[in-house]
UniProtKB/TrEMBL annotation:
Known EC number: 2.3.1.51
Similarity annotation: Belongs to the 1-acyl-sn-glycerol-3-phosphate acyltransferase family.
Originating organism: Characodon lateralis
Pathways per UniProt: Lipid metabolism; Phospholipid metabolism; CDP-diacylglycerol biosynthesis; CDP-diacylglycerol from sn-glycerol 3-phosphate: step 2/3
Database matches in Pfam families: Acyltransf_C (PF16076), Acyltransferase (PF01553)
SUPFAM superfamilies: Glycerol-3-phosphate (1)-acyltransferase (SSF69593)
Record-annotated Phospholipid/glycerol acyltransferase domain positions: 30-152
Topology with respect to the bilayer: Multi-pass membrane protein
Cellular compartment(s): Endoplasmic reticulum membrane
Function field: Converts 1-acyl-sn-glycerol-3-phosphate (lysophosphatidic acid or LPA) into 1,2-diacyl-sn-glycerol-3-phosphate (phosphatidic acid or PA) by incorporating an acyl moiety at the sn-2 position of the glycerol backbone. Exhibits high acyl-CoA specificity for polyunsaturated fatty acyl-CoA, especially docosahexaenoyl-CoA (22:6-CoA, DHA-CoA).
Designated name of the protein: 1-acyl-sn-glycerol-3-phosphate acyltransferase delta
One MF term in the entry's GO annotations: acyltransferase activity
Residue spans crossing the bilayer: 66-84, 248-269, 275-296
Catalyzed reactions: 1-octadecanoyl-sn-glycero-3-phosphate + (4Z,7Z,10Z,13Z,16Z,19Z)-docosahexaenoyl-CoA = 1-octadecanoyl-2-(4Z,7Z,10Z,13Z,16Z,19Z-docosahexaenoyl)-sn-glycero-3-phosphate + CoA; (4Z,7Z,10Z,13Z,16Z,19Z)-docosahexaenoyl-CoA + 1-(9Z-octadecenoyl)-sn-glycero-3-phosphate = 1-(9Z-octadecenoyl)-2-(4Z,7Z,10Z,13Z,16Z,19Z-docosahexaenoyl)-sn-glycero-3-phosphate + CoA; a 1-acyl-sn-glycero-3-phosphate + an acyl-CoA = a 1,2-diacyl-sn-glycero-3-phosphate + CoA; (4Z,7Z,10Z,13Z,16Z,19Z)-docosahexaenoyl-CoA + 1-hexadecanoyl-sn-glycero-3-phosphate = 1-hexadecanoyl-2-(4Z,7Z,10Z,13Z,16Z,19Z-docosahexaenoyl)-sn-glycero-3-phosphate + CoA
Amino acid sequence: MVAALEWWSGTECTLYTDPKSYPLYGNENAIVVLNHAFEIDFLCGWTFCERFGVLGSSKVLAKKELAYVPVIGWMWYFLEIVFCKRKWEEDRTTVAQSLQNLQDYPENYWFLLYCEGTRFTPKKHQISMQVAEGKGLPQLKYHLLPRTKGFYVTVQNLRGTAAAVYDSTLNFRNNEVPTLLGILNGKKYHADLYVRRIPLESVPDDEAECAAWLHKLYQEKDSFQDHYTRTGHFPGPIMSPPRRPWSLINWLFWSCVVLYPLGLLLAQLLSSGSVLTITAAGVVCSSVSMGIRWMIGQTEIDKGSNYGIKTAPLNNN
Ligand SMILES: CC/C=C\C/C=C\C/C=C\C/C=C\C/C=C\C/C=C\CCC(=O)SCCNC(=O)CCNC(=O)[C@H](O)C(C)(C)COP(=O)(O)OP(=O)(O)OC[C@H]1O[C@@H](n2cnc3c(N)ncnc32)[C@H](O)[C@@H]1OP(=O)(O)O
Ligand SMILES: CCCCCCCCCCCCCCCCCC(=O)OC[C@@H](O)COP(=O)(O)O
């Protein structure tokens, strides 16, 4: 999928960051905090992971539903991805346990947290801003109100192993609305990512202070998005890592290994002349194609969950 983004669609991924922090990227463990408003934000995240050599050890706090997505979900299970049900009563122990397993992870990893918990929609935004108002917090224009518990439990469990929080804010040039189908159709997008490295020591230990710290971080992220909307770029210098050939080589290798025998099999089936065999092959191919379309649907915001709509409490103090 990274090869599809970088080499097939030719999407440009530009990084805005401090040159002093740049050499540390990929050479330390980090907690990445990213906004969640685009259907391919996870894919842009993977692309940056690839460019800094941490794609294989990229982690995320993902909703449990994604564990059942064929291939990708199974792969995540084996990669020690942390899953949550977005029900704190159940997540508080399971998430902490999974995070503990990362303590002795043998490679540098990035642990991604979408603190908004769900993708941005105008309706979810309106409801979350009512919650913000109830809590006496400032309004956000470009983000949902962050959920603080997952962040707190992550910081608590990764302190000592992770060195920093990478506050990452993603946007697309010219008001592009990127989609995975667009990528697969070869459409080129222009992603801009602004990253600030914040040492983990500066995140408070106390739960209430940590939550307040995260709310302040999202207010700052909102001001960066505002800057981007007004000027077309993020503050700070561009330090973009170049595209590397590995994802393309990997894709070409596996395509040869898989597609050659599949092609032979298909040719044999067609030359068998049996109507039953050809019909069965047609049914299998259609089912696989429908399965892939369903998987792509998992990335589509208008097919997203109701999380953040129906769980909104009326009383928030
Ligand atoms: C140099 C380059 C740098 C960076 C490159 C960038 C990235 C690369 C990095 C890594 C890539 C790795 C992988 C990427 C690949 C794939 C990723 C794909 C998908 C996964 C994404 C997801 O699945 S997101 C969904 C799951 N994740 C989360 O939900 C995380 C955030 N959530 C939390 O932390 C939650 O607290 C929780 C899940 C732990 C628990 O959920 P619960 O609902 O029970 O939450 P809370 O108890 O927190 O909720 C109650 C509190 O929330 C308030 N509330 C209620 N309603 C709302 C509302 N509508 N909006 C906001 N707030 C609300 C309520 O008042 C409660 O408040 P309290 O004050 O009492 O806490
Ligand atoms: C050459 C390559 C060809 C590949 C073709 C196959 C494509 C298959 C694509 C499958 C992709 C599945 C990965 C799903 C990742 C979705 C991440 C995501 O964004 O999840 C949403 C959650 O965060 C929040 O959910 P909501 O509460 O908003 O609902």
